[in-house]
Design brief:
725 residues; alpha+beta; Creatine Kinase, Chain A, domain 2; Four Helix Bundle (Hemerythrin (Met), subunit A); 3 domains; 10-stranded mixed β-sheet; 6-stranded mixed β-sheet; 23 helices
């Protein structure tokens, strides 16, 4: 093989790789492993006095206010349990606006003054911590010199033991707020939005005659896509190391066009990684259910089953951090960037969500005859209204520099937020709009023409992978969320806009009934009104088609193609009124989300622009010039020998070298001009000038990769990174 020594060495390291011994020991892979490192309700039932346990259980299961008097008892039991599992330290775990998890570690050890120490954990420490709030993104809520911030124990998300090769730590999920109470994290607004949605859903349930109404929660089952790339390759790619995506790379001879990777046999080395991660996640109580190869080569997926949204959001953060740490043990880097490789599918995090409670079940379950299920239709209509009125907020909830590369690229939903109901529900709502629904399309039987095989059940309608918000049987799937993003942000928006929609429906129904309208007739009237006013958001066709984009604009739907286009949605009067009314964000907190998102967009692209210039100048251009020199030397040697050399290759390389140099100068000028702008104008300059300048550099570099001698090209190629495992 004539590859460059750097790349060849990486390949040989991969070939010599052996799976590490399983680190996460314990009870093996028996059912008992699930949740063994979680301070769960069954654990608490064994370790807490009955009255204390009942109090904690009421908070966890019914959302009742936490009794602070029980904190000391819970803390002592939690400490004893953790130390039995080898923990010497505890950490308040919170989710700042970086989008990552943060941890503040402290020891259980307390010196007693006589040269000895005791191990204790007090209730006041369990309930509240004090990390420095000035070093996290806050959007202007806190000045740099104002450092105080608080973490607060979230009893609804259980504490757990995080194992490492050298010890274990008790981790306690918490909120993170400023000294004056503003949310500096993703968990606090998610919990607020949950309360708001629960209040309004309870009103709707009461109208349907329910008396025993438990606390209503949203549920979430996120599907996580990711890439695995060998560490040896990543270490030789400054762009992957620093930006999480490749800024250069020619299209490989073979990509995903054969569809042979999707659901294909999982490579053995990848299976070893999956076994280790799943074992770790099971011990943490994460219900990881599904694993498979995804569409793109080197791409995979894990999907947990449904959980309460708050817990699901915490578990999503755990999945990403667990994948990162265990991947390194297996010689991989887990990539969560939405578009790490150009020309192949990127990665999303499909957020399946529903609403329900312990007594009334899943409110989005249509049953066999949806036309007769008035309660379901009301909740479904609430989703339609919410998506139509607040599609812009849904769009901004998943806005990022990374997701901009994926949305609308015929591999992910378009940036236009619409809703897919499917044939069965579409038909029911059309009947409602015409005066009343009397029937529902039923499931059928599907014979495949083989006598030995059973008859298969055929659903009443197909699924739609091009819709950003698709009904999939008993839930909606928000398919536009980026793979690197926390699910807490979109779930907060979904809960809040559902609170508004349910508030509206409950108010309309209450008024109609108070005016003497029979309840079922009132439901029919309200549902018909929702379809008339908000049916423009319903689209069952091909979301990838250019015709739909034109039609969506004609329908009045917002076309927010990029992060820069969508960020102003945080600042509209409608958004401020919505979040203020339901107590999810005050105006300062909402402005902070805008400022942080803007800052993160600018920082992400600035890092990529700097990397593009650096790699082009120090790696790609020198390789190209060396090859250009080799070709020129060959021409000179041939001429000295009296042979007329062919200048075609030299001229082609020289032209590309000139193009690369021009692209670098153009990028430098674009970045320099950025300093003349600020705020959203700076972001617009980055989108419209800097990103195209980066692409111009890449175009020349990728063309050079196709002609420069392989032994001179040091950057691992797409072919190597995607296919060698």
């Amino acid at each position: 093989m004539t590859a460059n020594p750097t790349r060849l060495g990486a390949i040989r390291e991969i070939e010599a790789n052996e799976a590490p011994a399983a680190f996460f020991n314990g009870t093996g892979d028996s059912p008992e492993i699930f949740g063994e490192n979680v301070f769960s309700l069954p654990v608490m039932a064994k370790r807490l006095p009955k009255s204390v346990y009942k109090s904690v259980a009421a908070t966890i299961e019914k959302g009742e206010k936490l009794d602070p008097a029980i904190a000391d008892v819970v803390a002592a039991a939690m400490k004893d349990w953790a130390m039995e599992k080898g923990a010497t330290h505890y950490a308040h775990v919170f989710y700042p606006l970086t989008g990552l998890s943060a941890e503040k570690h402290d020891s259980f050890m307390e010196p007693v003054g006589d040269g000895t120490a005791i191990w204790e954990f007090q209730g006041k420490i369990l309930v509240q911590g004090e990390p420095d709030a000035s070093s996290f993104p806050n959007g202007g809520i806190r000045a740099t010199f104002e450092a105080r911030g608080y973490t607060g124990w979230d009893v609804q998300s259980p504490a757990y033991i995080l194992e490492s090769p050298n010890g274990s730590t008790l981790c306690i999920p918490t909120i993170f707020v400023s000294m004056t109470g503003e949310a500096l994290d993703y968990k606090t607004p998610l919990l607020r939005s949950q309360n708001a949605m629960s209040d309004q859903a309870t009103r709707v349930l009461a109208l349907f005659g329910h008396k025993d109404i438990d606390n209503v929660v949203s549920y979430c089952g996120p599907e996580q896509e990711y890439f695995l790339v060998d560490t040896s390759f990543v270490n030789a790619r400054p762009d992957l190391l620093n930006a999480g995506r490749t800024l250069f790379g020619a299209k490989p001879p073979k990509g995903q066009e054969f569809d042979d990777h999707y659901f294909g046999a999982i490579p053995e080395r990848v299976q070893h990684f999956m076994f280790d991660t799943e074992r770790a996640l099971f011990k943490l109580g994460v219900p990881a259910k599904t694993r498979h190869n995804e569409v793109a080569p080197g791409q995979f997926e894990i999907a947990p089953v449904f959980e309460k949204a708050n817990l699901a959001a915490d578990h999503q953060q755990l999945i990403m951090s667990t994948f990162k740490s265990i991947a390194k043990r297996h010689g991989f880097e887990a990539l969560f960037h939405e578009k790490p490789f150009a020309g192949v599918n990127g990665s999303g995090k499909h957020v399946n969500f529903s609403f329900g409670n312990g007594n009334q079940g899943n409110f989005l379950n249509p049953g066999d005859n949806p036309h007769d299920n008035a309660q379901f239709l009301v909740f479904c209509a609430a989703v339609i209204r919410a998506v139509h009125l607040y599609g812009g907020l849904l769009r901004v909830s998943i806005a990022s520099a990374g997701n901009d590369h994926r949305l609308g690229a015929n591999e992910a939903p378009p940036a236009i937020i619409s809703i897919f109901l499917g044939e069965q529900l579409q038909d029911v709502f059309e009947q409602i709009a015409k005066g009343g629904a009397t029937s529902s399309k039923q499931k059928g039987a599907l014979s495949v023409g083989v006598d030995a095989l059973p008859v298969l059940t055929q659903d009443a309608g197909d699924r739609n992978r091009t819709s950003p918000m698709a009904f999939t049987g008993n839930r909606f799937e928000f398919r536009a969320v980026g793979s690197a993003q926390t699910v807490a942000a979109p779930l907060t928006i979904i809960n809040t806009i559902m609170a508004e929609a349910l508030d509206y429906l409950a108010t309309e129904l209450e008024a109609a009934v108070a005016a003497g309208t029979e309840f079922n007739a009132a439901v029919q009237q309200v549902l018909a009104k929702v379809i008339e006013q908000h049916g423009a958001a319903v689209f069952n066709g091909n979301g990838y088609s250019s015709e739909w984009h034109e039609e969506a604009v004609q329908r009045g739907l917002k076309k927010l193609d990029t992060t820069v286009d969508s960020l102003p949605e945080y600042q509209t009067p409608e958004a401020k009124a919505l979040f203020s009314k339901y107590g999810v964000f005050n105006e300062a907190e909402l402005e902070a989300r805008y400022e942080v998102a803007l800052e993160q967009y600018l920082m992400a692209v600035n890092v990529e622009a700097n990397l593009t210039e650096e790699i082009a100048q120090t790696i790609i251009l020198p390789a190209a010039v060396r090859y250009q020199t080799e070709l020129a030397g060959n021409i000179a040697a041939l001429k000295a020998a009296g042979v007329e050399g062919d200048l075609e290759d030299l001229n082609a390389v020289s032209a590309l070298v000139a193009e690369l140099r021009a692209g670098i100068k153009g990028l430098q000028a674009a970045v320099a001009a950025q300093h003349d702008t600020e705020g959203i104008a700076e972001a617009a300059h980055v989108k419209d000038v800097v990103l195209p300048a980066m692409l111009a550099v890449r175009a020349a570099a990728d063309s050079l990769e196709g002609v420069v001698a392989d032994d001179l090209w040091t950057l691992p190629t797409y072919q190597e990174m995607l296919f060698i495992k």
